[in-house]
Amino acid sequence: MLTMMYLLFLLFWTLYSNIQYIVDTHQILERFSPTLPGPNDPAVCTPERIILYTLAFSFCGVRYPLSLFKVELLQHFGIHFSQLHPLTFMRVVHFEHSCATVSGEPSVPLFCMFYKL
Questions:
Q1: 61: left (phi over 0), alpha (psi -120 to 50) or beta
Q2: Could you give the C-alpha distances from 99 to 57, 69, 90, in angstroms and in order?
Q3: Could you tell me the pTM of the whole model?
Q4: Which of 43, 70, 94, 106 is the most exposed place for a label (fewest CB within 10 A)?
Q5: What are the residue boundaries of the structural domains of the chain, listed by start?
Q6: From first to last of its 117 residues, what are the pLDDT tens digits of the chain?
């Protein structure tokens, strides 16, 4: 079992250590100038760049541009997208899809009834 997990990790690392694979697979526009950090680069957001987890794209359903609901949610909490852990963002995506399934519009007040960030 451990060997299989290790092989999956290696496959994941090999695929996602290639910036062009990430850009092509998740349709990230070149105007965002996506780059992978070096081994000694700190994960710090600056006015020129933001830090994103590749897991957010591969496992959590993140796509650009962000929906109006996601933008309003980030503004409500006063946080930047890069500050959310991929699993937290997955909850936001799940909530948004659940609302769409029951023919409802997602809203920040409704989200706050179910979740706390």
A1: left
A2: 21, 11, 14
A3: 0.57
A4: 43
A5: 2-114
A6: 455 555 555 455 555 567 777 777 777 777 777 777 677 777 666 666 666 666 666 666 677 667 889 889 988 988 877 777 777 888 888 899 999 999 789 999 999 998 876
